[in-house]
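FAQ
Q: What does a multi-component entry look like?
A: The components come first, one per line:
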Amino acid sequence: MKPIAKFYTALLMIFLFAPIAILLVFSFNEAKSLSVFSGFSLHWYQELLRDSETIDAVKNTLILAVSASLISTVMGTAAAVGIYRLRNRYLRSTLETVTNIPMINPDIITGISLMLMFVFVGRLFGAHTSLNFGTMLISHVTFCLPYVILQVLPKLQQMDQALPEAAMDLGCTPLKAFIKVEIPEIAPGILTGLIMAFTLSLDDFVISYFTSGTTFQTLPIRIYNMTKKTVTPKMYALATLIFFVILALLIITNLMGANNAQNVQDSKRPKARKGSLPAA
Amino acid sequence: MKRFLSLLLAALMLLSLAALSGCGSSSDTLTLNVYNWGEYISDGSEGSLDTVKAFEEWYQQEYGQKVKVNYSTFASNEDMYAKISSGAVSYDVIIPSDYMIARMASENMLLPLDFDNIPNYQYIDESFRGLYYDPDNLYSVPYTYGIVGVIYNANVVDEADAQGWELMWNDKYAGNILQFNNSRDAFGTAMYKLGLDVNSTDKAVWDQALAELQTQAPLVKSYVMDEIYNMMESGEAAVGAYYAGDYFTMLDAQAEDVDLQFYYPERTNYYVDAMCIPSSCQNKELAESFINFMLSSEPAVANAVYTYYASPNSLVYNDEGYLAELGEETVAILYPGIENFRELYNTSAYRNLDPDTLSYINSLWETLKIG
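Then the predicted structure of the entire assembly, as tokens:
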């Protein structure tokens, strides 16, 4: 059984990482070709730094991803709290379902419908260009929102409802109880939502394609548009850099997560053993 | 609690409003929105001239007025058409291909140019005027042109076989031949080979071309577009058709045991991409001065060097530095010195076909690909 399991794991790893490995190797290729490795060089990395249009596109993508993920996290958390507090059970489950619809909707339909809406509104106000950074931001927030809600809502449901009540009994205002007790309790959900929103926004192509205007072009759109000629190896260099940045981010968050889990376990264990009343 | 949330929401609204209004341009800077193919202009990489920035600087010096060029790119004529006809964006200068210019002109989507503002138009070669897509030279200024030719690996293919479209049907090279994965281009190769009209609306003509493609099918290694670069460079395939400018891109990257060569069959496809001003343009004079600038010597040469496509601009193909940089052999291939270009072009370049014929071609294409 064991060798089979090992083989299976190896196969899985190859499937997942072979394309990235090839990209990584060829980003250091001296020549332009994907078939011949003619020598190690940092040429394409230098070229990348000189390509101001691509650098701008990277900047744009990051600006958009950061603002869209922050806004959608704040809005999504607020929405989750609102849904969670609803007394009417039917209304609540209806709302939960409705917020899930944009997730199931194909990107292309979301993209086209958003574009049509922006054009319609733009025409109403007589604008000659109705698509710009703002419209892209709105679209990204739109498709990130449900994912944040989906992450935060279960955390709220897992939370012991007595906690905020206890805090208020002990003199907290509702706002203070929310900030001091509820937010730390649901923080892992908020963080996952934030990271998910960020990555979704970062690599979205379809919706961005339909809602981008004349001034703001993101990286996925730029790479797609390069296909009149071949995609140059400087894009491999860029992809390699992005891969390592994301890898570093993942490692950091995982380490932080592991630490948190450790802390939680540490703080819970003695209490359980003693079986005493929780300390004030 | 409620107040906190409403404050939060209000802050958000303000933020998004600020983001929206931040995009409006300030009044003392003119903006010019340019929409071009990706990788189709000299952009400052590899030590080349950044032509867009050069225009901004030149304009400020010339007119003392700041200009901000918003340069964005598209991947196909159809993408560009969809974006512009949606009315969502307004561009000032676009660079579509010939058949798309014809279509947009017929749909009143282009503005007639004022050539008093484009004096450099005089440098455009006589044979690039009065082409079918713009017979009265109203709407367009040619940017680049290209001709489809056959690329082959001389280490595999006998020199004697390298002639005409027949090479792509030669069973000696079965399993080594690449065909376009695009109905129009693939049918084109068969129709040029048979001497048929590529713009025919007669279904029988297309059936004939299909039969020719079906005899070729067993010899074809695969139907490709972009993949042709890697397959030819590595020697994985030995015969394929593509544009001359792209042949040089492959040549730059060919493997050691590959020797890529190129020739033009007698009848083949030509394309011309040209600069136009769409009807959504906000500042026509500025757009015209951009077009004029792109025709002037320095940026035009830089663009031609960068894109590797042939230029219809006499300032480019007579430029000593440009000719020296490309080298004799390259020049001979890029500029085959066609005497009657206009005639050849008007008779054998692809035109926009009516929807009926197009859907018929697509159904034939599916027959070919499935069986």
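Q: Is there any commentary attached?
A: Sometimes. For this entry: Residues 270-280 of chain A have pLDDT under 50 and may be disordered.
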